[in-house]
Amino acid sequence: MKFLDDIICPVSFVKIDNHVSRLTVFTNAVLIALYLFTGAPYFMLVVAIDYGIRAIWKPKYSPLRWIAARIVNLGGFSEKLIDQAPKLFASRVGFLFAAISVLLIPVSITASLIVAGVLLIFTILDSVFDFCVGCLTYYHVVLPFYKYRGIR
User: Fold this and answer.
1) What is the pTM of this model?
2) Which DSSP category does 109 fall into?
3) Could you tell me the CA-to-CA distances from 66 to 15, 131, 144 in Å, in that order?
4) What is the pLDDT of residues 105-120, one digit of tens each?
5) How far is CA 36 from the centre of its chain?
6) Beta bridge partners of 16
């Protein structure tokens, strides 16, 4: 697709293992799906906390990332380094969606499930298809503000 070739993602000099990142996000997808099927709020709470740790503090402190790193090491996958910035931005977007879903639980379980469902779609696209919705969001929502300011 031509429009995907022109997408600009945030860039940093920090590199992370793509296998660990995708497995972490896949674990989040499983937890979100469990929340959607069972309605048990603790699944979504775990997702929100994990996204919060990766988005606000340091990704290396994420419990789900730690588990994913151990699984990747046991599986003997060779390290595939990618830029951390797009994944960090996606974690921030994921945290926003997960936190909104958790906050909506006492107000409207239906609204909470809808927000969680959208997040599930994003996580499946990232973990299974390696398609980062965060990059599209960055390109179409964040980057235009910088263009208007003359930064880009």
Assistant:
1) 0.83
2) H
3) 16, 22, 35
4) 999 999 999 999 999 9
5) 17
6) 82
